[in-house]
Amino acid sequence: MLRPDLLLHPTPKGLYCPPGDFYLDPVRGAVDRAVISHGHSDHARGGHGKVLAHPHTLAIMAARYGDSFAKQTQAVEYGEAIEINGVTVWLSPAGHILGSSQIVVEHKGLRMVFTGDYKRRADPTCPGFEPVENTHVFISEATFGLPVFRHPPTDQEIDRLMRSVADNPDRTHCIGAYSLGKAQRVIKHLRLAGHDRPIYIHGSLEKLCEVYEAAGVTLGELRPATLEDRSKAAREAFRGEIVIAPPGAFEGKWAQRFPDPVIGFASGWMSVKQRAKQRGVELPLVISDHADWDELTDTVREVDPQELWITYGREDALVRWAELEGRRAKPLRMVGYEEEMG
User: Fold this and answer.
1) Residues 73 and 58: beta-carbon distance below 8 Å
2) Are 66 and 170 part of one and the same domain?
3) Is the residue at 340 inside a domain?
4) Which domain holds residue 95?
5) Is residue 243 within a helix (H) or strand (E), and if so which, with residue range?
6) DSSP string covering 46-82, please?
7) CATH number of the domain enclosing 48
8) Do both 193 and 67 map to the same domain?
9) Could you tell me if 97 and 189 lie in one domain?
């Protein structure tokens, strides 16, 4: 069987496959051929020669970077195997956001699974994570790779938001949520919880919400939160309503247009009280698009790989946990990947 480091190894541009001559999620400079796990900008950037990804990821990249984000694109459905220079590549759902994929790379009897980012709990906006059997090397993220991170049930956090809206009918609930994935997920959870009123969104969310709608994820009535009319009457119309925008939008003057706002933030990092306090968040919602500690460790046990490689986050703690379980593990110490909103 081929040595794992001969099939995939970290480089300054990203994980590189020498026999296939392609990169996984390259973020430092353009490459000739890239396989992309999902559409977040710290994994998917424009300018590459050839890009292979799930159709929904390609649609997201086109919405963010324009239709010419790559010289050539190839859409691959989940479970569809293709050959790149003799290396087999296929995708399995990662459960992170719409189109998110684990990238399975196979060559000379070796199967390696690169997760990108993933989560295990139910998400009504994308297919759930599917463990890949007979995995020799499992490459896992570790964004929340510390035992202190144990996220509460999503429905519990959405119920807190719904109760706050009901208890504060004269205030505007301004919820910070990452524009791709988190915002659409919060909107869909609100719909499933019975919130049938219009939801107001920041302009940066519009194209991405359209991509989700085109993929069959119904989000209900969405209205622009941008105010052309700055009159008091126009501002007062937002009382009792929910506004969703990127977190940074509420840190400047943009949020001041809404009457008596309740500032919320949907992120796994909201379990860290100091972070919520620093951002002036009145309603912290612990809603994450990443696996928490229990999901990370349970997934490794379920996949049961011969070797565990860890990247994107708290690598050392997960390596230590694996060693205590008698598992072979190592950190990749990849650079260039930003801390997402969680």
Assistant:
1) yes
2) no
3) no
4) 4-148+290-331
5) strand 242-245
6) S-EEEEEE-HHHHHHHHHHH-TTSEEEEEE--BT--E
7) 3.60.15.10
8) no
9) no
Q: Are 182 and 154 in contact (CB under 8 A)?
A: no
Tell me how far apart the alpha carbons of residues 305 and 328 are, in angstroms, rounded to a whole number: 9
Mean pLDDT, rounded, of the chain: 93
3-state secondary structure of 315: helix
Q: Tell me: do 85 and 178 sit in the same domain.
A: no
pLDDT digits (tens, 9 = 90+) for 207-230: 999 999 999 999 999 999 976 667
Does 43 share its domain with 99? yes
The more confident residue out of 139 and 255 is 139
For the CA atoms of 234, 238, 244, 249, what is the dihedral angle to 10 degrees? 50
State the pTM of this model.
0.95
What average pLDDT does the segment 193-218 reach? 97
Total domains in the fold of the chain: 2
In angstroms, the CA 112 to CA 18 distance is: 14
> Containing H/E element for 83?
strand 82-84
CB 144 within 8 A of CB 292: yes
- 59 and 40 in contact (C-beta within 8 Å)? no
Q: Is the pLDDT of residue 321 over 70?
A: yes
Residue 174 lies in a domain: yes
Among residues 85, 111, 91, which one has the least CA distance to residue 19?
85
Pairing state between β 222-224 and 199-201? parallel
Mean pLDDT value of segment 188-197: 98
Q: Could you tell me the strand order of the sheet in which 9-11 lies?
A: 9-11, 14-17, 22-24, 33-35, 48-53, 70-75
Residues 6+ apart with CB under 8 A from 118: 94, 95, 96, 100, 102, 129, 141, 290, 291, 299
Quick check: is 225 in a domain? yes
Q: Do residue 120 and residue 160 come from a single domain?
A: no
Distance between CA atoms of residues 209 and 301, nearest Å: 35
Do 126 and 40 lie in one domain? The reply is yes
- 3-class SS letters over 130-186: CCCCCCCEEEEEECCCCCCCCCCCHHHHHHHHHHHHHHCCCCEEEEECCCCCHHHHH
Local confidence band at 274 (pLDDT 50, 70, 90 cut-offs)? confident
Q: Are residues 183 and 119 in the same domain?
A: no
